[in-house]
Design goal:
This protein is α+β, with helices and mostly antiparallel strands. It has one domain. The chain is about 20% helix and about 20% strand. The protein has one helix and three strands. The protein has a three-stranded antiparallel β-sheet with strand order 1-2-3. A hairpin with a 4-residue loop joins strand 1 and strand 2. The protein is globular. It starts with 20 loop residues before the first strand and ends in a 6-residue tail after the last helix.
Length: about 60
Amino acid sequence: MPLIRDAWFLPRRTSDNNKCVETRFTDDAVHVRNNLRPEGGTAVFTHEEWRVFVAGVKDGDYDV
């Protein structure tokens, strides 16, 4: 779980703050949205879904 809770934040590796996704962690879920179009909708994941996704990225399951 990140240090920032209940607030939108950009990843530390963001090189261009104008083109990234924002994430917000709450007690119940992980929220992800496009920082350029926050009104465009938010994807919501359970903490378990998020853990599985992040593990897949780290394992190379996705070409990011």
